């Protein structure tokens, strides 16, 4: 794992130009014949506007990437999403909309009066959709974590329209990690206003394609509401778990201080990052709800403090909910370590910074559905294959201890993916992930969650992205398929390539190299 890096990783945090037409890629190996669609990915592509830099990993302007597969040939195309944040920045040659970690200064051309009045219009929330892309009905949306999602054309990469989710449901924002059922139903979660001016979390359901071809988003409904542990401070939520009949929501100690958020914003140069704080005493709260019909189950599950971004999978087994996730130990917010200045530092500095950060771990938690007050003090989990425990205390709180599925010092198994179409919400065996070495992505990993066996693909000075699983059409086994990942190889003759790995053993099937740099991407999808 631990070979030294020469600093080539800096390249994945560098601005690049969009393309006017698709570039042909140079293929070595053989592209599987069942790959006929396109790989769509999102990430930042513009890291400064004029002489104003963006400061955080999640600030650069959204760039959409596409690799197309046709008759064994591959082309690569990319376009900036024409968000308000992007268009206004390009027009005014400055940062106009405040991003996650970058404050937008007021327009220098405006006088004190017009500034005073624009202050009362309130906060302009960013629509910079740099995190993911997913289908809703027949449409495709590029997304971040605010209330704005952006409809895009997955073939031309054109930007079609900005959609404000607040127009349809009580939600302050939605995550970039929806769950999508086989019929196209979309579920997502976000912070909202609950009853009596308290904060809460809503799970939202967007139905599949409508018979009358109307927009499914207009039919969005709240399915169930989870309460917030702190009245004015909701936890940061990045994803949630969903099995066949239940939702799992993990309420971490990383909080959004709304009062700070609203006041700081208008008064001094502050950004979203300034509004996070940790509740050092809360630990982690685990909530479950029935899915259909939606019903919150009022049981108190609690565990040691973790930060958590990505659920891996969730399933029910013999009266238990088993959920696997990528945890970061402790209550500190991991995003504090993702400032671009830290990530662009030389390798010794990068390592030093990561030494202070929360430690990553893949964990399995188990929640018992059938809970009786008289069973205090004993482990309620009777599944034979896991060491995860749930123990009821005298006050009725049930303490969860996880089983560790993978742990390596400052070696994260992150950006997890599974054979989602066949095994999402079901008992499964394999997960695939991006290996972060002191936060720098330098390998592709596979983990057997039942035996804890691991496989690794790695090459020197190569920086891959989240691996997406594509099933072999006639595949029988869970891991019959390939993984698709975009690899930056800054020192090479061709500085980036699409890599296709056999999901069985992570052996290389093919690669398609391009003549341009490709910056970091976060999430995406294979569109068949």
TrEMBL record:
Record's keyword annotation contains Hydrolase: yes
Residues at which Fe cation binds: 177, 238, 310, 523
Molecular function (Gene Ontology), one example: retinol isomerase activity
Cofactor(s) demanded: Fe(2+)
One GO biological process term: zeaxanthin biosynthetic process
Stored InterPro entries: Carotenoid_Oase
Regions crossing the membrane: none
Cofactor details (free text): Binds 1 Fe(2+) ion per subunit.
Protein name: Retinoid isomerohydrolase
Organism of origin: Echeneis naucrates (Live sharksucker)
Gene it is expressed from: rpe65a
């Amino acid at each position: 794992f631990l070979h030294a890096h020469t600093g080539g990783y800096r390249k994945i945090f560098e601005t690049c130009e969009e393309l006017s037409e698709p570039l042909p890629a140079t293929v070595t190996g053989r592209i599987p014949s069942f790959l006929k669609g396109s790989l769509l990915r999102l990430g930042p592509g513009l890291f400064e506007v004029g002489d104003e830099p963006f400061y955080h990993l999640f600030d650069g302007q959204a760039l959409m990437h596409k690799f197309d597969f046709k008759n064994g040939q591959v082309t690569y195309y990319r376009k900036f999403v024409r968000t308000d944040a992007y268009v206004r920045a390009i027009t005014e040659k400055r940062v106009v909309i405040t991003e996650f970690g970058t404050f937008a200064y007021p327009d220098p051309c405006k006088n004190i009066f017009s500034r005073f009045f624009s202050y009362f219009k309130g906060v302009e929330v960013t629509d910079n959709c740099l995190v993911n892309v997913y289908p809703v009905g027949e449409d495709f949306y590029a997304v971040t974590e605010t209330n704005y999602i952006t409809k895009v054309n997955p073939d031309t990469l054109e930007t079609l329209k900005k959609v404000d989710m607040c127009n349809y449901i009580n939600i302050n924002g939605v995550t970039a990690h929806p769950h999508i059922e086989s019929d196209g139903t979309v579920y997502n979660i976000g912070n909202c206003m609950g009853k009596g001016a308290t904060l809460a979390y809503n799970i939202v359901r967007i139905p599949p394609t409508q018979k009358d071809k109307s927009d499914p988003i207009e039919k969005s409904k709240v399915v169930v509401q989870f309460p917030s542990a702190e009245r004015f401070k909701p936890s940061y939520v990045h994803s949630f778990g969903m099995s066949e009949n239940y939702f799992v929501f993990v309420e971490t100690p990383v909080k959004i201080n709304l009062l700070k958020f609203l006041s700081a914003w208008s008064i001094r140069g502050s950004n979203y990052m300034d509004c996070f704080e940790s509740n050092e005493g809360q630990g982690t709260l685990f909530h479950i709800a029935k899915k259909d019909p939606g019903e919150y189950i009022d049981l108190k599950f609690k565990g040691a403090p973790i930060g958590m971004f990505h659920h891996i999978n969730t399933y029910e087994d013999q009266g238990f909910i088993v959920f696997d996730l990528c945890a970061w130990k402790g209550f500190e917010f991991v995003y504090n370590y993702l400032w671009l200045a830290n990530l662009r530092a030389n390798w010794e500095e990068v390592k030093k910074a990561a030494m202070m950060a929360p430690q990553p771990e893949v964990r399995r938690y188990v929640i018992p559905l059938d809970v009786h007050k008289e069973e205090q003090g004993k482990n309620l989990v009777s599944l034979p294959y896991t060491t995860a425990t749930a123990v009821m205390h005298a006050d009725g709180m049930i303490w969860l201890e996880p089983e560790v599925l993978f742990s390596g010092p400052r070696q994260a198994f992150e950006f997890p993916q599974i054979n989602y179409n066949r095994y999402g919400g079901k008992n499964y065996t394999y997960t695939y992930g991006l290996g972060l070495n002191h936060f720098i992505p330098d390998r592709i990993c596979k983990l057997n969650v039942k035996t804890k066996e691991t496989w690794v693909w790695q090459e020197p000075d190569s920086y891959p992205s989240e691996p997406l699983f594509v099933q072999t059409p006639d595949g029988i086994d869970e891991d019959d398929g390939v993984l698709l990942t975009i690899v930056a190889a800054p020192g090479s003759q061709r500085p980036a390539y699409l890599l296709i790995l056999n999901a069985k053993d992570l052996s290389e099937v093919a690669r398609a190299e391009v003549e341009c740099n490709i910056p970091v991407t976060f999430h995406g999808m294979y569109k068949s």
